[in-house]
Write a structure and sequence with these properties.
By secondary structure, the chain is α/β, with parallel strands linked by helices. It has a domain at 55-321: Type I PLP-dependent aspartate aminotransferase-like (Major domain) (Aspartate Aminotransferase, domain 2), CATH 3.40.640.10. It has helices spanning 33-36, 45-57, 68-81, 86-90, 131-146, 163-167, 192-201, 225-238, 306-321, 324-339, 366-374, 397-411; strands at residues 12-16, 19-22, 27-30, 124-128, 150-154, 184-187, 206-211, 214-215, 221-222, 241-245, 269-272, 283-287, 345-351, 354-359, 376-377, 379-381, 386-389. The strands form four sheets. A seven-stranded mixed sheet has the order 4-12-11-10-7-5-6, sandwiched between helices. Strand 1 and strand 2 form a beta hairpin. The chain is globular. It binds pyridoxal-5'-phosphate.
Length: 413
């Protein structure tokens, strides 16, 4: 294998709920969800049944034919995310939030169609295969839509490794010379004045602002609502597209479908991946009604295939039926409260089940000890100084308590 990953010497062969098992039958508590990917738990029976049933019918046929599973996914996602009633949801406060536009989807509010898989006046869905691809398409779409080439991104951002996505990612180590671009302006985290300056510097050339409401890779850094509302206002004033990268913080993880929802505003494009398919590779763009498609503008071979669509539909239905957004909020609040009492943790940040624990200096090896001594998977950020907790949204209170106790033991050993 091309040796680019730092790998733990563990091989996971099965999983159920928030538990995974290695080849020797050793049980691990998964508080990382395979990097925020496992949203409804490992091996969810409804999900397994839906994917298995689809596979037995048809594994793949391309976007050159009608794929009814796309319409079903669009309707389900529209309902679960609230975008199908976006006008009703935000109609009263769009102006307050600074949007100069007619409430997105307002005319369709209350319709049963959900998001439209095929354009029209509703929110629209474009399906692809990964997070980077979702951002790549979102940036490209913003450029097509505005006819402009510049992008504002935020310091610390991670948007993926494809060409435009990595150019908008604030980590020179992963930007190859071929990806370097002076089209991207980085503005400091949570700094409204600097954001205003960036717009002025770009002199009417800003196609998009791309922003994570909660930066994951940067160590779970929560953007203030004031900053996100400033992004909305400035995008409206300057005719730019607001791209909310919800790849890590979205899909219900914060207790609302989009983390951006907490700022009571609406983006123009939401990008999704990770939790949307519970492990089935998929990326998606929810695109506001005012952004018009044109044939051939975007495209993909695999994106939106039958298997991916049934997987993502099953995920959204389980989230809805089992109240998993509420569970994420409740368990997340419990965990953050308890983690704040643990000695050795300087700061606990996040919302719902995207939690960062900034460790006191000297505790950098904690993730490894949690894995090997306590059999608990967690993620890290900022060179191991931050532990990242991104469990499945159906993690239980008992499992959360076990994780907190394991962290306490390791930090106080
Ligand atoms: C916020 C964010 N955007 C984009 C990506 C890229 O997603 P992918 O690895 O699926 O390309 C990631 C992956 O970690 C992410 O966290």
């Amino acid at each position: 294998m091309f040796d680019v990953y730092s790998v733990h010497d563990v091989s996971i062969v099965t999983g159920r709920g928030s538990w995974v098992f290695d080849a020797h039958g050793t049980k691990y508590l998964d508080m990382y969800g395979g990097h925020a990917v496992i949203s409804i738990g490992h091996g969810n029976p409804d999900y397994v049944e839906a994917v298995t049933e689809q596979l037995s019918q048809l594994g793949f046929y391309s976007n050159s034919v009608v794929i009814s599973q796309q319409a079903e996914l669009a309707a389900t996602l529209g309902r679960v995310s609230g975008l199908d009633s976006a006008g009703a949801r935000n109609g009263g406060c769009m102006a307050e939030a600074g949007s100069g536009k007619a409430p997105a989807g307002g005319s369709e509010a209350g319709s049963e169609g959900g998001m439209a898989a095929d354009g029209g006046r509703e929110w629209q869905l474009f399906l692809c295969n990964s997070g980077a691809e979702a951002n790549e398409n979102a940036l490209k779409l913003a450029s097509f839509h505005t006819g402009r080439r510049r992008v504002i991104s935020v310091g610390g951002a991670f948007h993926g490794r494809t060409s435009l996505a990595v150019a908008a990612t604030d980590n020179p180590n992963i930007v190859a010379p071929i990806n370097e671009s002076n089209n991207v302006i980085f503005t400091p985290f949570n700094d409204v004045a600097a954001l205003e300056q960036a717009f002025l510097q770009a002199r009417g050339e800003v196609a998009a602002v791309i922003v994570e409401a909660i930066q994951g890779v940067a160590g779970i850094m929560v953007e203030g609502g004031e900053f996100l509302r400033a992004v909305r206002r400035l995008c409206d004033e300057h005719g730019a597209v607001y791209i909310a990268d919800e790849i890590q913080c979205g899909c219900g993880r914060t207790g609302r479908y989009f983390a951006t929802d907490w700022a009571d505003i609406q983006a123009d494009i939401y990008t999704m991946a990770k939790g949307i398919g519970n492990g089935f590779p998929m990326g998606a763009l929810a695109i506001a009604p005012h952004i018009a498609p044109r044939k051939g503008m975007l495209g993909t071979t695999f994106g939106g295939n039958q298997l991916a669509c049934v997987a993502a539909t099953a995920v959204a239905r389980v989230i809805e039926r089992n109240g998993l957004m509420q569970n994420a909020l409740t368990i997340g609040e419990y965990m953050m409260t308890e983690l704040r009492k643990v000695q050795g943790i300087n700061d606990v940040r996040g919302r719902g089940l995207i939690i960062g624990c900034e460790l006191e200096p000297g505790h950098e090896g904690v993730a490894r000890r949690l894995l090997f001594d306590e059999k608990v998977f967690v993620g890290t950020a900022v060179g191991g100084r931050v532990i990242r907790l991104l469990p499945a949204l159906n993690v239980t209170r008992d499992e959360a308590e076990m994780a907190v106790e394991a962290i306490r033991r390791v930090l106080n050993a």
